[in-house]
Amino acid sequence: MNKVISGLLVLVGIIHILPVSGVLGVERLAMLYGVTLNDPDLEILMRHRAVLFGLLGTFFMYAAFTPTYQPLAFIAGFVSVIAFFLIAGSVAEYNDAIRKVIFADVVALIALVLATFIYLRKKRD
Question: I need a surface site. Which of 22, 53, 62, 123 has the fewest CB within 10 A?
């Protein structure tokens, strides 16, 4: 069961690490999100977002192999994914690239739900 939890958290980590390449600049951000960033302030914010996702993804990877941190990883993952769903849902229209991000977050959510369920069941036994 530990290997399953680890594998699921690694998957969540990979999903969160993928946007790190956005730190390289607006061209990469455009590829990731299908947006044009002509505002330098927005570029700074989006590139910083990429760094933060890298940190979060790295934490998921660490927690995958450090059971003590797994509950915190589950909470952080749920907050991240659900917040994105709520924000995307509050904006009626988004492009196909964002739709792909939503799909990736659905995969992450499923992985988090399964990992949390297995973790809690293992703790109960």
Answer: 123
